[in-house]
Amino acid sequence: MAQTYESLKQLFRRLTWRARVLPDFLVIGAQKAGTTSLAYYLSQHPGLVASHEKEVHYFDGGLNESVDTYDKGESWYRSYFPRKTRMKPGNMAFEASPAYLFNPLVSGRVFDQNPKMKMIALLRNPTERAISHYRMEKKSGRETLPLMEALVGEEERLSSCLRSKDYKSQAFRYHSYKSRGLYYEQLLRYHKLFAREQLLVLSGEAFFNNPKETLRQIFSFLGVDRHCEISDLAKENVGSKPQGPPIEAIEYLNDYFDPHNKQLYDYLGSDFGWARP
Question: How far is it, in rounded angstroms, from Cα 273 to Cα 275?
Answer without folding.
Answer: 6
